[in-house]
Each structure stands twice: as C-alpha cells, then as structure tokens.
Design goal:
- The protein has 423 residues and is of the alpha+beta class.
- It is 63% helix and 12% strand.
- A five-stranded mixed β-barrel has the order 1-3-4-6-5.
Length: 423
Amino acid sequence: MSDAWAVALAVATALGALSARPVPVWAAVAGAAAALAARRPLLLCLAAAALASTMGARAWAGLRLPPPHTAVAGPATLVTDPADGAFHSVRVELRLGRRRVVAFAHGRAAAALRPRLAGEVVRVAGRLRPVGGRRRAYLAHRHIAAQLDVTALTPAGRGTLPARLANRVRLLLLRGVETLPPGQRAMFAGFVLGDGRNQPPATVADFRAAGLTHLLVVSGENVAFVLAVFAPLLSFLGLRGRLVGGLAVLFLFGVLTRWEPSVLRAEAMAAIALLATYSARPVSTVRLLSLATAGLLLVDPLLVGSVGFLLSVAACAGIAALAGPLHRRFRLPLPLAVTVAAQVGVAPVLLPVFGSLPLAALPANLLAVPAAGPLMMWGMAAGVPAGLAGGRAGAALHLPTRLLMAWVEGVAHWAARLPLPRL
C-alpha cells in the first residue's frame, strides 16, 4: 500500500466513524479480508469505512441514558485521577459495571476519594442521572452518558498489577519534586505525567495565550522521549527483545499517563514503527500516522470527536507534510519549519473549537520546545533516583529540572504579553 492509499484509508475510516450508520459486521469484515487477499486498496478503504461506521453506531447505542435518580451500589474502578471540582466537590471518571460515568463526591465521600489514583477499586453508592447541557457532547466522546452523585465511598483495592506498578512509579516521581515550589511541582506533573491538576490559573493562562498548552499535558513528544530514555537498556537486547521491551515500555507509559488521546496516537505510531523495524519493512511517517489513525478509529470510533486526538493527528500531519518543503524550498531553519508546519496543521481544529490562533505561538514554541525535550527526558530519568533519595539529594538531582522549567515558564509569560494579534 502506497502512502497515498494509506492516507485514503485513514480518511475513509474517519468518515465512517463520523457517519456512525449500522452496517452488517460480517459484510465489512468479509470485504476487508477480500481486499487484503486481492490487494485492492480501494476495496479496503470502503470496507474500513463500513466497519468504522457500524462500530461507531454501536458505540453511540451503548451510551444509554439511565432513568433519573437510579440508585446504584457496588465496586467501581477509577478511570482518571480524582480532581477538585466546584463547590468543594471531587470529580472522577469511574467504570461502574459495563458503564462509564462521571462521578461527583462531597463531604466524607470526597475526603475518601481525593487521595485515590486511577486504576484503584472503590465501593460506591449513589444515584445516577443523565448528563445534560453543554457537557453532554464532550463526555459522549469519552463514552460517558451518566453522572453519579456519590453518597458513600470506601477504598476496595489497588487495582491490576500494571495499575499498581504505574501508580508506584508515579508517586515515586512526585516524591522526588517535593522540595520544589507548589507551582513547579504541578508543572512537573504536567510535563512528565500529563497530570493537569493543581496547576496555577495564571500559569495556565500564560501557556494558553502563548500557544504552549501542549507542554502542560502529556503528548506525543513524551512517548518519543521515554523511548529515548530506555533506548540504552533496550540496545543490549536482541531484535526480538527490543521489540518486546519497546512494546512493554509503551504499555506501561500508557498506563502511567492514563491513556490520553494524544498518547494513544503516538503509541500506536511507535508500536507500528517497532513492528516495521522487526520485520525489516521501514515505513514513512505519513504511512505510520495514517495506519495508526485508521487502527485507533476502528477500535474506538468516538475518538473522531476528541479534540485532543484531532489536535495530535493534525500537528503530526502538518509536520509530516509541510516541514520538509518549508525547510528545503523556502530555506526556513528546520526548527522554525517544524513549528510553522505544526501550527498550520492544528489550525483547522483550533479555529472552529477555540475561535482563534495566537501568533505568539511561533516564537514561543521556537524558544520553549528545545528546553521541553531535555526537561521531559531528565525529569523521567532523574525522577526515579530523586524519589528514592528524597531530601537534599533529590533536590540536587532536580536542579536541571528547575532551571528548564523556569525557562519554559518565562518564555510562556513573555510570549503571552507580546503585542501580536490572534488569527
């Protein structure tokens, strides 16, 4: 399959996921099998569109609205980390049986929920009601159609082995930055773990105005840097060992960062690249992105409406399509070409959703991203020994972390105040 047909496959799958019309699954699967056997890319695109369409219809049908004030009680697994909400509440997403819900707790239930982590199991009691208002469309793309008003909650378990391992690493990394000021601790959690809780509102506003919000949450860059951190260890293994080890690192990092949509996209691309290297069939970035996008939309068609997923795909597509030509034909320095290409890529997503695009993002990304890379790598590599050592030793290990975060924060503060217009 050529790069052009790979792009067509991704577009066809996205259009199928958007349409969400029920199609017989057997017909779509039979069409895909026939297309692969006969090597007919057009037929494969049509079959993928049909399969994504019927999977999307099933996903939407699964978002059943509960009757108002439905009483529930039983075990539930935390899907996200608890975060403080309005009116002294604690908000979290739970998997309750076969249903995924957004839950709000107050009082004693909130105090019991606040220190818990994603992947842990709790016993909850409360009342379900349909999600309404402007939140409905956003939560629907996270497979949520109901809200749980929690009346009682007790811890019931630490969760699966991967969840326990990821949470221990997470707590260890955060223990290593306990000596940092609260604002920098929150930034560290965002840069390295994608944890956007507790970040100062003024810092968030500066990063948003400077077009740097992608640095405060985990993104595809983090996946590349975590593989770079483990590359020296994986290099001692054989080809099959590097494949298995690389896939294991990707899986554990996904659990650690809570499987954010941008991480899903980057991890799918990295996994396909590892498999291509193992089979001695290297593929282009365009094909990697297209195959990863098509595969993820077949698994979860509702991702087609996730802003985080769309921004991640659009930025990568912009870089893959435009960075090279801008560098070669227009003689732009490569860092500037990559920045411009990424901004052009995300513009079709940002403009309809947020209404404008800050021109300050160009100088801000040029100055901040070169420091963000070492910050992510050093934060991950030094974070574990810093967490084990603690105290002054941990603070000394994180001195480069503090300097790099101060630089990125300073760039965001400066760029947010540039007298540049917004598109």
